[in-house]
Amino acid sequence: MLSTIYALLFYGATILIVVGVAAKIRKYAATPAPLKIPTTPAPTTRGGVVLRMLREVIFFESLFKSNKWIWLFGWMFHMALWLVIIRHLRYTIPGNTPWLLDFLQPFGKYAGFAMVLGLLGLWARRFLVDRVRYISNPSDHLILALLVAIGLSGLTMKFVAHTDVVAVKAFMSGLWTFKINTLPTDPFILIHLTLVLILMIIFPISKLLHAPGVFFSPSRNQVDNPREQRHIAPWAAELEK
Amino acid sequence: MADGDTNIPKLDDPLQVPCIKPGAMEGLQPFLASPEHNKALGFPEELVPDWKEKALAKMKELADKNRAFQVYLDICVKCGACTDKCHYFLGTADPKNMPVARQDLLRSVYRRYFTFAGKYFPWLVGARDLTKEVLDEWYSYYHQCSECRRCSVFCPYGIDTAEITMAARDILDAVGYGMKYSNEIIGKVHTVGNNLGLNPKALAATLEDLEEDIEDETGVSVRLPIDEHGADILLVTPSADFFAEPHIDGLIGYAKVFHQAGVSWTLSSYASEAANFGLFIGNYENMRLVSQRIRKAAKDLGVKRIIFGECGHAWRVAYSFLNTLAGPWDFLDPKYPVPQHILEFTWNEIQQGNLTLDPSRNDHMTVTFHDSCNVARGSRMGDMPGGQFEIPRNVIKAVCNNFVDMDQDTIHESTLCCGGGGGLLTDDLMDLRIKGASPRMTALQKTTEESGVTHMAAICAICKTQFSKVMPKYGYDMDSIVSVHQLVSNAIILDGQETDDDADE
Prior knowledge:
Chain B: InterPro entries: 4Fe4S_Fe-S-bd (IPR017896), 4Fe4S_Fe_S_CS (IPR017900), Helical_ferredxn (IPR009051). Chain B: This is Hdr menaquinol oxidoreductase iron-sulfur subunit. The complex is a heterodimer of chains A (241) and B (505). Chain A has 241 residues and is mainly alpha-helical. Chain A has a single domain (38-221), classed as Fumarate Reductase Cytochrome B subunit (Up-down Bundle), CATH 1.20.950.20. In chain A, 72% of the residues lie in helices and 0% in strands. Chain A contains 12 helices and no strands. In chain A, helix 1 (2-30) packs parallel to helix 9 (187-202), helix 4 packs antiparallel against helix 5 and helix 5 (99-128) packs across helix 7. The longest helix of chain A is centred in the middle third of the chain and has 30 residues, at 99-128. The model of chain A has no long low-confidence stretch (mean pLDDT 96). Chain B folds into 2 domains: 2-185, no CATH class; 187-404 and 453-491, no CATH class. Helix content of chain B is 48%, strand content 4%. Chain B has 23 helices and 7 strands. Chain B has helices at residues 35-40, 51-65, 67-75, 87-92, 99-114, 116-120, 122-125, 132-141, 150-154, 161-174, 180-191, 200-218, 247-261, 284-301, 312-326, 342-352, 373-378, 387-399, 430-436, 438-451, 461-470, 484-491, 500-504; strands at 233-236, 265-266, 305-308, 340-341, 367-369, 455-458, 481-483. A 4-stranded parallel beta sheet of chain B has the order 2-1-3-4. Chain B has a 3-stranded parallel beta sheet with strand order 5-6-7, sandwiched between helices. In chain B, helix 13 (247-261) links the parallel strand 1 and strand 2 (265-266). Chain B is globular and about 75 Å long. At the A-B interface, helix 1, helix 3, helix 6, helix 7 and helix 11 of A face helix 2, helix 3, helix 5, helix 7 and helix 9 of B.
């Protein structure tokens, strides 16, 4: 019964995040940028823009220029999150995982701590820095709380109260082929999965949209070539008729 | 106006971050545009009765028409990276002058009406209804942003508060709640052709006077032609260059460079304004109309190339937008970029060795350079990214022996706005202008103490006017701000010019 409920929740949440994010991406892609507004100095070629964007999403270049504390905590959290996600692929992909994933497995284990530490650092700033306190809404605190709780419940299962990870894998990987296997019922796995479900559901309606959104930011993704190449939005071209 | 009672902020460091003082600048509002000013720009004459519906409809329209607006409203994570980057926040400590908080004034309303979370859980995400108080708050704080883009450099997603400010002003104009300074000026450009409302006769007379001045000073006849058909170059320059100090000395500099380079050039009375205040109010249609004047002037006069004078926002619109707004420029000589900056021209002439320069004629000054915000972060000069920083400095160093840069954190892409940009260069905002200038002024004071800097050069009409007004408050003479081409003008020795050395002999 419980397994069925969670299976259905996962299907529902997956549909929401995929459709929701796809709809947002479609909206961003379909909305024209009427003017060339890269923050200069900006790359003068497409290739240069790709590099600029990679530096932004891999190293958080602009954030590094701005504030070393936010950069430290934010970068630590995001990079650790990647390692944690990679670790979790083994629990969700059916069968044996490729050697690279197996190699990265143990890193994800400790990345969990870095992830929580980074989040706590970011959260502390929301209380300690008067400027950041001023701009924080309840939702900003709650998202941090959600992510910290996901991290802590996961770490608890690894280091304190183990769950039957083989059964979890059977449940999660079964979902790919619409097989509902039995999910363990110890509290930490249920809390962990519930929180992840919440995260998936709120993703397309929250600030988590920064993840796909950054790639559509005209100040970062435009080529600095307005004199060489005429740029005009379809609605603006109408004005010329 | 509020001149007398402004407390000049004392900063130990140009970028010293204050503790927030909520409400510090509350209620500050520039004068409202009059019904005639609004009407001339195609806006409702005064606040319309159904302003709420109209404002929300305009917000939706902009979110559909401008990707930046849509994306920037959605993706801010409130990390706080921008909170200490705005010169108005540094100078006023009002938390609503922190870029993210300024965006949130509008984002909160967007969320309330256009997002799931804001519709059903407004308290959770800080969403709020659009009320008259909110509209007034917009009017106040979106006129405390100079659209300088400094915050966008430091945002991990490149969120540009200028885009939000422009959209907010566009919305305000759409409901008949526009600002006097910008709207009145745009009206003048539409009818007369320049911000100052100088008619062709007055312009021609001014230029004649300048020709006489140059001849008196140098003994050489240097022309400042206007409306000359068949000239090669159309010079488009801010109208302040015809009128204000130190701008006018820059105009003399351009004329001398053109003269010495031996090119034929002309000004246009029809397009006698480089600045495009359509940018300030975020209105594409008005920005386009102003730009189209330049296209028409270039066609009518039959020129081959277009060069812009020293003007910051003008250069952003010219470099980044002119091709969009008034292109394509296929009727001009394809050998030259359209448009070019006067500094690109002058630097090229210097490199070619076509100018005789005596930098010692600027020895009475130690000069620093203020990167104008919109040139630094919204445009380029030359072929390489960052040319907008190098070329002006190269030219200054070629004509000046004593050059010192200000703190690295306050120049190039991190440059601080003068405090008067983006449509705020009006006396009814003097208090804000003085406070907003304090980070730049503090950086300047540091170089004066450490390196004996006496003068600051700029390449923007607004910077020049703003500094000549606020520098006295910070212990400098009003003529401590100079045009870059004023330095060129001082150093250049025209063929046949009588110099002091000749007189001594």
